[in-house]
Amino acid sequence: MRDELAGFTIGVTADRRRDELAALLQRRGARVVIAPALRIVPLADDTDLREATRACLDRPPDVLMANTGIGMRGWLEAAEGWGLAEPLRGVLADAYVVARGPKARGAIRAAGLHDQWSPDSESCDEVVEHLCRRGVAGQVVAMQLHGERQPECTLALEEAGATVIEVPVYRWAPPTDPAPLHRLIDLVAGRLVDAVTFTSAPAAEALLRAAGDRCDAVLDAFRGDVLASCVGAVTAEPLLRRGVPVSAPARARLGALVRTIVDELPRRTVTLKAAGHLLTLRGHAAVVDGELRPLAPAPMAVLRALCGSPGRVLSRTALLRTLPRGADEHAVEMAVARLRAGLRAPRVVQTVVKRGYRLRVD
């Protein structure tokens, strides 16, 4: 099939660039659930940002840690509004500039500044290790924050003898409408999505925090049926800490993230022969002899259960446990009927009188 992700449902937790990521996935056939876990709140009029800027002008930094592209652009735009852009660029031009990643590097260069070093891992920890090896005793380090304070990094630099000026350009805040995020959490816990994408570590933390008492169910799903796909190693850290296996590209780019998902998800599918047909299970669809057959959640749940024990008879009671709460045995019969109609291969699911149903593998 040309659409590598056809039949799969993928959650997108990004706020900024969510439409771009969704389009890349939809272009490959995926069904996308957009549910921002956080939003970025600019701080152009924030007192702390103005004071940090004044501190940099009063005591020009020897080192600039540029963490994000949006943060560096926002800082310079805010300085422009205060009439301080040129003086700020002047003091930063004399600093040793470290760009944490390519977006920060691009913003630095667009501002007419020159970056001297970037970490391969794009992690703050590697930046701090590099600066401490280089020597920061007696120096001033301007640290452009990315959404939240980084007390570990600040403390490490201060212990190495530096004075750190934290520059808060924006902060993370909960989404304006939390309903899509809670809906995505329900889908993850119910294993009704195949993958969830994360483009920042705070977004991963925010989703787990929003899950509340369902957090264990969400983590169990990520450890099993639902792929946690992160844009890079830094983003993956909160999930790895909780024992969640993640997929992440070698380079932290949206295109590379999508290619990783295209490689990974089809490998996780179940394929078997049933009643003379080749059957492959995808998230919300079955592929029957190469043809995609989208299915509703209840028929899909029944098919997954039958494929999990091919040839074995499953009782109505056993199948009932796969359906949403509140369903009865009549709902099982309806789901089986819809499954047969959706597959357009009626012999695949066999009724065993007074016992239940089985996947015909003979």
3D architecture notes:
- The structure is a single chain.
- The chain has 362 residues and is α/β, with parallel strands linked by helices.
- It folds into three domains: 9-38 and 175-268, Rossmann fold (3-Layer(aba) Sandwich), CATH 3.40.50; 43-172, Rossmann fold, CATH 3.40.50; 271-359, Orthogonal Bundle (Arc Repressor Mutant, subunit A), CATH 1.10.10.
- It has 15 helices and 17 strands.
- The chain has helices at residues 18-26, 47-58, 69-81, 85-93, 102-110, 124-134, 151-159, 179-189, 201-211, 215-223, 233-241, 254-264, 297-308, 316-320, 329-343, and strands spanning 9-12, 31-34, 39-42, 63-66, 96-99, 140-144, 163-167, 170-173, 195-198, 227-230, 246-247, 270-274, 277-281, 285-288, 291-294, 349-352, 356-359.
- It has a five-stranded parallel β-sheet, sandwiched between helices.
- A hairpin with a 3-residue loop joins strand 13 and strand 14.
- The longest helix has 15 residues, at 329-343.
- The mean pLDDT is 92.
- GO terms for molecular function: DNA binding; uroporphyrinogen-III synthase activity.
What's the helix and strand layout?
Elements: E1 9-12, H1 18-26, E2 31-34, E3 39-42, H2 47-58, E4 63-66, H3 69-81, H4 85-93, E5 96-99, H5 102-110, H6 124-134, E6 140-144, H7 151-159, E7 163-167, E8 170-173, H8 179-189, E9 195-198, H9 201-211, H10 215-223, E10 227-230, H11 233-241, E11 246-247, H12 254-264, E12 270-274, E13 277-281, E14 285-288, E15 291-294, H13 297-308, H14 316-320, H15 329-343, E16 349-352, E17 356-359
